[in-house]
Write a structure and sequence with these properties.
By secondary structure, the chain is α+β, with helices and mostly antiparallel strands. It folds into two domains: 231 residues, Rossmann fold (3-Layer(aba) Sandwich), CATH 3.40.50; 113 residues, Nucleic acid-binding proteins (OB fold (Dihydrolipoamide Acetyltransferase, E2P), Beta Barrel), CATH 2.40.50. The mean pLDDT is 90.
Length: 353
């Protein structure tokens, strides 16, 4: 695929800190690219520079190979959807979506056709005369997206657009946004601090921390093979253990739990293990699997996502373990001791935090 956006050594310095620090990345046309990171890491500043609302201190932004240096926001082939949505409450749905087209002074019949077509694509045909105050949160979200997409931008920028929605609606809108992006073929660049949103919707994700990208990869690779301790801790749920000693292939945690990990050419200071990586009641002895006993502190029932809060025998380490779906462990309860195992490939080790 062709590259639609290219960022070269982009930085933004403020008086007392650097918000974005020498970032390089590119986005393929028609892709869903998410920038994931905690609050204050520089995500929104980066988005504002791409849209032209913030001037870069250093570096270059190219859209379809053309530098955006000095190009004002209204002349860039991008549109932006904010968390607040910024819809006009005094206007109905049609007037909100038509606003930008009217400013371009297009003919009325052209505007009517484009608005009707776009409302149909976002599933809001028949809502033209409704006030935005009469709509649900998800419907208002679609009006904001329609208003941006009707301008036919090359890139749609979305800054935490689901943040104000309740959990159930947010889960629904994640799927809707992904399907809408695939149908329209518009390039989406999506800002979020919610790793679930990024994992579900994205083709590629950049994990951002303190103004820099720690890893840019597919959702599956980010989850399975995090390259840094920050990515391992931020993307998905993980158990974290400090390593105080390494002798041969044996790692000893601060809580005096011993695990086997061969092939390491460095001494790690921390390791992460996903809760679902643990094997309950392993049936075979293998050198690449560490087997140990844990005592259950409590059962955290959550339907298909039920977990056990445990601690390893002879250790102070607390371990969160996911129960396999459709597994029959209904009789497990507080105080029970069970045998579990973990494969060495599921021990994600790092030299530094």
């Amino acid at each position: 695929m062709d590259t639609i956006l290219e960022i070269k050594k982009l930085s933004k310095h403020f008086a007392d800190f650097t918000s974005v620090d020498g970032i390089d990345f590119s986005v393929e046309e028609g892709g869903f690219f998410s920038i994931l990171g905690p609050s204050g890491c520089g995500k929104t500043t980066l988005l504002r520079m791409i849209s032209g609302f913030e001037e870069e201190s250093e570096g270059e932004i190219l859209i379809r190979g053309k530098s955006m240096k000095g190009v004002p926001p209204e002349q860039r082939p991008v549109n932006i959807v904010f968390q607040s949505l910024a819809l006009f409450p005094m206007m109905n749905v049609k007037e909100n979506v038509a606003f930008g087209l009217k400013r371009k002074k297009l003919q009325k019949n052209v505007i009517d056709h484009k608005v009707a077509q776009m409302l149909g694509r976002v599933g809001l045909s028949g809502f033209e005369r409704k006030k935005v105050t009469e709509l649900s949160g998800g419907q208002r979200q679609r009006v904001a997206i329609a208003r941006s997409l009707v301008m036919e931008p090359s890139i749609l920028l979305l800054d935490e657009p689901l943040g104000a929605l309740d959990r159930k609606l947010r889960e629904h809108m994640k799927i809707e946004l992904k399907l809408l992006q695939k149908e329209l073929g518009t390039t989406f660049i999506y800002i979020t601090h919610d790793q679930s949103e990024a994992l579900v919707m994205s083709d590629k994700i950049a994990v951002m921390n303190k103004g820099r990208f720690e890893q840019v990869d597919t959702p599956r690779e980010l989850y399975k093979n995090p390259k840094t301790a920050f990515v391992a801790s931020f993307v998905g749920e993980s158990n974290r253990f400090e390593i105080i000693h390494k002798e041969g292939d044996v790692l000893t945690t601060k809580g005096q739990w011993k695990l086997t990990k061969s092939g390491l050419d460095f001494t790690p200071v921390v390791l992460y293990i996903r809760p679902e990586a643990f094997i309950l009641s392993p049936t075979e002895e293998r050198k690449d699997i560490s087997v140990f006993e844990v005592t259950i502190k409590t059962v955290l029932f959550d339907g298909a996502n039920t977990k056990l809060s445990t601690f390893a025998q002879g250790s102070d380490d607390e371990i969160l373990i996911s129960l396999p779906q459709n597994a029959h462990f209904e009789d497990l309860c507080e105080g029970d001791t069970i045998q579990v195992g973990v494969h060495q490939d599921d021990l994600k080790c790092y030299e530094e935090e």
